[in-house]
Specification:
This protein is α+β, with helices and mostly antiparallel strands. It has nine helices and 14 strands.
């Protein structure tokens, strides 16, 4: 069971003993979802959403994967660059964390496909169009990780028929875990929601993903649009962490105009934002899905202006 008050001890202890973890007994997320559901039903008795049965296992997978990565953090792991990239890095920590997360998932759902970032544990890169599957991002914010920067996380989502039904993002170095399903979102088992700000001049906005060295005009436009329209800019260096921050009301929006976004980088966090009361669309304001062009996630307070700012980034690419 994930104890929200002793998470550091838990994280440090589980990486070498995944086989002893009782997934069926991991009820913290279910209890929190039930609490969130009760609060929601008090506000609107006409709508009842049951907690997801997959929340405990995605929580466990995110925590155990994150624990494996944390045990290797700042230990001088060798850094490799992925083919054709100047910023996409991978280490043995990424591979080990993904293997641990997959092991946790497979113990509960041995037949479910895994969509994962690394070529580990029979992971595929394509989201199945039907049935149950899981996405795993072992270290989102790998560049931060390799620099000793603590802004990185492990994210896992359960999807049915290509739609997210449960998600968890563990942030080991901050002792935080964000979990959610359509019943609600929690940070460390406490219900959270997007912020209630509606004045964009009070927004904190996170341009996310990385614009390559041949796309500096887009990067410059992203920063210019944010500082001109909104209160402040945040660059987490981790898309999943930026999206979790929007879901918890820590920041108001996370944006990118880029195409071909990886499902393991986005599905869990985008779902958390929506379940926390926010809005997630593509560049044209259409409902977002894992193969959409761009991603615009906000607290809904001034979503149209957030879209306009992201469209200006896209215009810089033309």
């Amino acid at each position: 069971m994930v104890d929200p008050f002793n998470r550091r001890t838990y994280l440090k202890g589980v990486a070498g003993g995944v086989t002893s973890i009782g997934i069926a007994n991991s009820v913290s997320a279910q209890n929190a979802e039930s609490k969130s559901m009760e609060e929601t039903s008090e506000a609107s008795s006409s709508k009842t959403v049951e907690p997801s049965p997959y929340t405990p296992v995605v929580e466990q997978a995110a925590v155990t994967g994150g624990a494996t990565a944390e045990n290797l953090f700042r230990t001088g792991v060798e850094v490799e660059y992925k083919e054709g990239s100047e910023a996409a890095v991978v280490t043995d920590a990424d591979r080990a964390a993904q293997a641990t997360a997959i092991d946790t998932l497979k113990r509960a759902y041995p037949d479910a496909p895994i969509v994962g970032e690394e070529k580990v544990g029979e992971a595929t890169k394509k989201v199945p169009s039907s049935g149950l599957a899981f996405t795993v991002d072992p270290i989102d914010g790998s560049y931060n990780y390799t620099r000793g920067n603590s802004l990185w996380c492990t994210s896992v989502a359960a999807i049915e028929d290509a739609e997210a039904v449960a998600a968890a993002t563990a942030v080991p170095e901050r002792d935080d875990i964000y979990t959610g399903s359509p019943a609600g979102v929690q940070r460390n088992s406490d219900p959270v929601s997007v912020s209630d700000r509606t004045d964009p001049t009070g927004f904190m906005v996170a341009p996310t993903y990385w614009w390559g060295m041949d796309s500096r005009d887009q990067f410059a436009t992203a920063t210019s649009e944010v500082v001109r329209r909104f209160n402040d800019l945040r660059r987490y260096g981790s898309t999943q962490l930026a999206l979790a921050a929007v879901a918890a009301g820590e920041t108001e929006a996370a944006i990118t105009n880029l195409d071909d976004l990886n499902p393991w980088d986005t599905i869990a966090g985008a779902a958390l934002v929506e379940w926390a009361g926010g809005t997630v669309t593509d560049l044209q304001g259409n409902d977002w899905c894992h193969d959409s062009h761009g991603l615009v996630a906000s607290n809904s307070g001034a979503h149209e202006e957030v879209i306009e700012a992201t469209q200006q980034i896209e215009a810089a690419a033309e």
